[in-house]
Each structure stands twice: as C-alpha cells, then as structure tokens.
Design goal:
The protein is of the alpha/beta class. The protein has a single domain (70-374), classed as TIM Barrel (Alpha-Beta Barrel). The chain has helices at residues 8-11, 17-30, 33-48, 54-65, 71-82, 100-118, 137-148, 154-162, 167-190, 201-218, 236-250, 264-274, 284-300, 314-327, 346-355, 368-381, 388-406, and strands at 87-92, 126-129, 193-196, 225-230, 254-259, 305-310, 336-341, 359-365. Helix 3 (33-48) runs antiparallel to helix 16, helix 4 (54-65) packs across helix 16 (368-381) and helix 11 packs parallel to helix 13 (284-300). The radius of gyration is 21 Å and the shape is globular.
Length: 407
C-alpha cells in the first residue's frame, strides 16, 4: 500500500480536541524566535534557583515532549501509543556527573531498572543510554584526543591511546567498561535493545570503541546493542562501512541507529574557536545525501545490520519503505525499525504504523530538572517556522479543520 504522510486523521487519532489545541498553541508559541531564545536561557536558571515554574513547564513543553517524571507516569503514555501499534524507546534523563563515581554507579543502576521494566512490557522493545551518564566527560575527552594522535584502524589507535592514561585513569576506564557491560548483559538476558546515544565529536571515539566491544559480545544471534551514527558528520558514511567490515570480521550483527545529528552549532563553534576543520557537513543537502546513502547501504546489508531509521524527514522514511519493497522485504522485517521523537512528526509515526511498519516514539522521562536540557533542545529546533514547526502547525491546523467540518 502507498504510504502518505499527509493523512492527519491517522496522525492525530490518539489526541483529543483539547490536546490538539494545546499542541497548536505550543508550536505557535515556539514560532517566536525571541521568545524561545529568552525562554531557553531563563528556564534552566529559574529551575536551578528554585523559582516555582515547574507547574508551568509541566503543563506545556514537558507534556508535549516527555512521557512523565516516573516510569509509572510514562507507562500510561506507552499504553496509549500501543493502542495504535506504536512502540516505545524509553530514555531516562539521568546524569551521573554531579556525584562522581557514586553518581555513575547510580546512573548505571537506573538504566538497569529501565531495562528490567521494559522487559515486562510488550510495547517497549528498546531503551536508550548516554555513556556520559556513567563516565567522566574529561576521561572520554582525554582518550578521544589520544586516539586522534595515532594512525591505523580505530581499534589499533584506541589500544595505543590507553597507554596515555595514568594508572588511576586506567582503573577508572575499566570501571566504565564494567558498567557498560553490566547494562548490556542485563539487556541481553531480558531481550531488550540498548541504543547508545551519540556524543560530541571530541568524546565519540571511545564511545564507538566501547559500543563495538559490546556488539561483538552480545550481537551474535540477535541485535541487542545499537550504535548511533550522526550523518551530519562528514566521516560517518565511511565509519558505517568500516563498522560493517568489523562485524563481518568478528562475526556479529551490526546495530546502527542512523540520525542526522544534534550538536551542529556547538560543533561548528568549537571548531572555529580551536582552529580545526569542522567535522560537520557544509550544508543540509550533504547531510541528506549521506543519510539516504546510509539507508541504502544498511538495507543492502540487512542480513548483517539491524537498522533503526530515526528520522523526521518524510523523504528518508518513504525511501526506506520503497527500498524494502524493491528488495522484496516485509515492512516488518526484524532488522528494521522506524522512530521519531515523542511530540513530533506524528504524521510519520502513525501513518507508518498504519501501513504495518515497526515504529516507535522515542520517549524521554525523568524529573523535570533532569530533562530541562532535552526540552530546551526541542524548543530551539522547533523555533523555525519555515522548518519543522511550520510543518507541525500546518498538519495540526488541517486536522482541527477536518474535525470541525466533520461535526
């Protein structure tokens, strides 16, 4: 069947008139760039100094983009999505950095708690982790910098980079590896997929190495561990091909979640300030080209790659379904899954689900203060009326009009 992302009846069937009008107001507000700029600066400050604004946040941007403050609250959202054949990727907004090793251990335990919960739910096949939740940023940065100083394959450069660590740092890194292994071992036992989030380029190499170690150990017959590749980086297509070579050499299934990217302004600014070539693609067209090329590559090798198409781009999602059809693959092939962020692109998610695809919403949850950085990113990326916000608003207004004419 032909898939259309213009069907707003499918897209918003799960929302009441009241919820749809609330979303309409929120996206309209986010179209005012000055308001968003002010809000994204003042909100984190207001939360930190204890101003009573949590209720306002909860009723607006939090409700739109976050499942709840606790697993129990989030369960209700997951159940609602499940009624429309939409699954969930759970993401707990946990950070371990404020409390040293104790904080990192606590974050690890929280990730494991999420895995254990997900394993009891038919509708939650995946959960997401951030390595910076259980590893010190400075340690990752030192390792990455040393990896960049050496020649050869990523693994060879990593082995040499380990020699640059002090004895205490080597022990600290071992503890990071143990935490990662503990998380992935639990996930493998419970048959829950673990999506390892991408980080900034200057700490990504050790994250890639660690994720490849885990895939080699746990992705022998099923895909448990997925790496996240940001295709707005100009080197990720080559990295994807190299990752498949490693998978074939070491006999494991490569887990690849492909996204466009999340840290563009920060990456470009740092490159300019420190005088090195920006790792980010020169323009959106180059990013789109590499993303769609990565899609083709993964679907060409679907026997060896478990693919998650994490995209809000309508063309890329349609392209993926067309490529599956050309290959004679079922839309529900066990090695392909589609995903969009909760609160955005419902026209893609729910129409893919209606067509029979395996599709999920990426559903963050956690205390308001912990998810503020995530919420501020959502506000910033939705501040362009010519981009995502314009599309969201157009679809919401179209559905409100359809409902009004129907009554």
């Amino acid at each position: 069947m032909a898939i259309s992302f213009d069907n707003t009846e499918n897209a918003f069937e799960y929302k009441s008139d009241k919820e749809l009008k609330k979303a309409n107001f929120l996206f309209s507000s986010m179209g005012y760039k000055t308001l968003v700029k002010l809000g994204t600066r003042l909100t984190p400050w207001a939360i930190n100094v204890g101003l009573p604004i949590k209720g306002l946040i909860r009723q607006t941007i939090f409700d739109q983009f976050v499942g709840g403050e606790t697993l129990e609250e989030t369960a209700a959202v997951a159940k609602k999505l499940g009624a429309y054949s939409v699954q969930v990727i759970l993401d707990y907004g946990v950070e371990g950095g404020d409390d040293g090793e104790h904080g990192f251990d606590h974050a690890t335990d929280e990730f494991i708690r999420v895995i254990n919960y997900a394993s009891t739910q038919d509708n939650i096949p995946f959960m997401s982790i951030k390595v910076t939740g259980f590893a010190r940023f400075g340690l990752l940065e030192k390792l990455d910098s040393s990896v960049a100083d050496h020649q050869g394959s990523l693994m060879k450069r990593y082995e040499k980079a380990l020699e640059s660590l002090t004895e205490d740092e080597k022990k600290e890194w071992d503890r990071v590896l143990q935490r990662m292994d503990k998380i992935c071992a639990t996930a493998a036992a419970k048959k829950v997929g673990v999506l390892v989030d991408a980080e900034e380029t200057w700490i990504q190499d050790p994250v890639d190495v660690m994720t490849i170690f885990m895939m080699e150990k746990y992705n022998k017959s099923n895909v448990i561990v997925y790496n996240t590749l940001q295709l707005y980086r100009d080197d990720r297509l080559v990295f994807l091909r190299n990752s498949l070579e490693a998978a074939e050499l070491k006999n494991f299934i490569l887990g690849a979640k492909i996204v466009r990217g999340a840290y563009m302004e920060k990456e470009r600014r740092r490159a300019e300030e420190m005088g090195y070539a920006s790792p980010i693609q020169p323009d959106k067209e180059s990013t789109d080209k590499d993303y769609n090329e990565a899609l083709r590559f993964c679907i060409d090798h679907l026997d060896r790659i478990g693919l998650i198409v994490a995209s809000h781009n309508e063309y890329s999602n349609l392209l993926a379904t067309e490529l599956l059809g050309k290959k004679g693959y079922d839309l529900k092939h066990p090695h392909i899954h589609f995903s969009q962020l909760y609160g955005m692109s419902d026209n893609i998610t729910f129409n893919l689900a209606k067509a029979g695809c395996s599709v999920s919403k990426y559903l963050p949850f956690g205390p308001i203060k912990d998810v503020i950085p995530y919420l501020m990113r959502r506000a910033q990326e939705n501040s362009s009326m010519s981009g995502q916000t314009g599309r969201e608003l157009g679809l919401i207004k179209k559905e409100l009009k359809r409902r009004k004419e129907k009554t």
